[in-house]
Amino acid sequence: MRKKYDISEILLVSGYFNTDIEDIKFYFRVHYLGEYLYMDETCYIWTYKVMIYNGYDYDIKVLGREWNMVDCRGVKTKVIDRDILGDHPILKPSEIFEYESVIYGSSDSAIIYGYYDFLNILDNRRFSVDIPSISLDTPRSLKEIS
User: Fold this and answer.
1) What is the pLDDT of residue 22?
2) Where is each ApaG domain found (predicted)?
3) Is the pTM of this model over 0.85?
């Protein structure tokens, strides 16, 4: 979904944290859904919403992303998506693309990090933007930390 916002409006949205890299701003909100049993193994589920703001003065295309997840036991998982939910959205200057997705983990605490790939529509140049670590926690794992 593409929307045009005044960027100051985004900063008022509660529950988001942002990262400002180059002229692209990312806003993330993570929500723990719960756990379920699958083949005698407990799985943990989080939803996350991402908003990508194009601060450049030209159009950019989102080509894909790579997430790396490391859980509290050190188990590593890599997810490579060469699209965003089946799409390669093009963002005009000052436009935001937002989407929601789900991530599954085998422990009640993990971090994810990675990058997004983009295309500068103006000169057909590809570039990547790193995403810093995002914490995935459950209410139980937060209690154990405090």
Assistant:
1) 64
2) 18-143
3) no
Instruction: Return the sign of the alpha-carbon dihedral for residues 145, 20, 99, 106.
Output: negative
Name the DSSP class of 58: S
What the block records as the tokens of 133 is 């670590």
Closest CA to 62 of 31, 95, 30, 29: 95
List CB contacts of 133: < 8 A, sequence separation 6 or more.
111, 112, 113
Instruction: Report domain extents, the chain.
Output: 2-140
Averaged confidence pLDDT in the chain: 82
Within 10 A of 52 (CB to CB), how many other CB atoms are there? 23
Q: Name residues whose C-beta falls within 8 Å of residue 141's C-beta, 6 or more positions apart in sequence.
A: 72, 108, 109
Averaged over successive runs of 10 residues, the pLDDT of the chain (146 residues) comes to: 48 49 81 88 89 92 94 90 89 93 89 93 93 83 51
DSSP label at 124?
T
Q: Is 2.60.40.1470 the CATH number for 2-140? A: yes
Strand boundaries in 10-89, DSSP class E: 17-21, 24-38, 41-54, 60-71, 76-81
Q: Which residue has the tokens 């919403």?
A: 49
- pLDDT given at position 145: 46
